[in-house]
Amino acid sequence: MSAGLAASETPLAEAYDLALVDLDGVAYQGHLPIDHAAPSLASARASGLDLLFVTNNASREPEEVAGQLSSLDIPTEAAEVMTAAQACATLLRTRLEPGARVLVVGGRGLVTAVREAGLEAVGSADDAPEAVAQGFAPELGWSDLAEAAYAVAGGAWHVASNRDMSLPTARGFAPGNGALVAAVSAVTGVEPDSAGKPSPTMYRMAVERAGASRPLVIGDRLDTDLAGARAAGYAGLHVLTGVSSARDAVLAEPGLRPHFVGADLRSLLVAHETPVLTDGWWRCADRAARVVDGRLELDRHGPAGLDVVRAACAAAWDAADAGEPVAADSVPELTA
Questions:
Q1: Which SUPFAM superfamilies does this UniProt record tie to the protein (predicted)?
Q2: Residue 166 banded pLDDT, cuts 50, 70, 90
Q3: Which residue is catalytic, options 22, 144, 220, 248?
Q4: Which residue range forms the structural domain that includes residue 303?
Q5: Which of 17, 24, 279, 307 is catalytic?
Q6: What's the CA gap between 223 and 198, in Å, rounded?
Q7: How confident is the model at residue 2 (pLDDT cuts 50, 70, 90)?
Q8: Measuring CA to CA, which residue among 13, 177, 6, 150 is closest to residue 85?
Q9: Is 131 exposed, middle or buried (0-12, 13-18, 19+ CB in 10 A)?
Q10: Has residue 182 been placed in a domain?
């Protein structure tokens, strides 16, 4: 796929057969609903788009995730949820035989996934585990990380459910699993394998489970959701309801760029126009952007909207790919 924006003459819900939907920042925000999420997903399903919710959270069971979605008017079955814990367990089975011992450093979701994969979950490095499965859980402490370090230093295969450095909470950003994994790596000097986003492993497992041929990744984070889409070779929709902003998209490196940009999940229900280069300006509908001497210029001041976001992405990406990176201080905050 090209590293630029893509076009869709039909609504995305009709152009693709499976949506791999991120949770926090896309389907909900913490324990709160996101405006337009539930009715948009319902309309997308009615158009024939299958949904599979894919999360880097490894601490919760799929049934718990499905229950939360259903409580927010997004009816979901456990089979429509894939967690990083499940992906981690599947990755472990690529090298471990049934019954192999795995030191689980994480929540009950990871313990369950490891056991359901036919592996034995143990709690100490003294149990001689063949691997360490590490996932986030708020109750983890120093002793848990120490056990992981002892096991990895002793030769156990280190597999992380994900490597998100931060975790959004109601009070702001807190250390994520990646920060805890980094603590173990700093001690052992061992770089772990990872099953979660931005590794394409979990996306590919989800697509195989669903039997889809035209998947669309939907996420709010460029460094995990959309980077994973690029790594897997799938189209990615960046919705501006979570972590990464429109400005972040404009400044994104090729491996982090979305194929589509939308304000929220209503963007599933519309066609997407791609910017066109005309007279030195990248134009999308009635808005335009260009890069001059390494600085982004917009055609006029005023409310941004998605058209100027798309035009700015096209102009900035084209310039960066031609060896003229855009000065970050020339890119304003853009609203959709």
A1: HAD-like (SSF56784)
A2: confident
A3: 22
A4: 276-330
A5: 24
A6: 7
A7: low
A8: 177
A9: buried
A10: yes
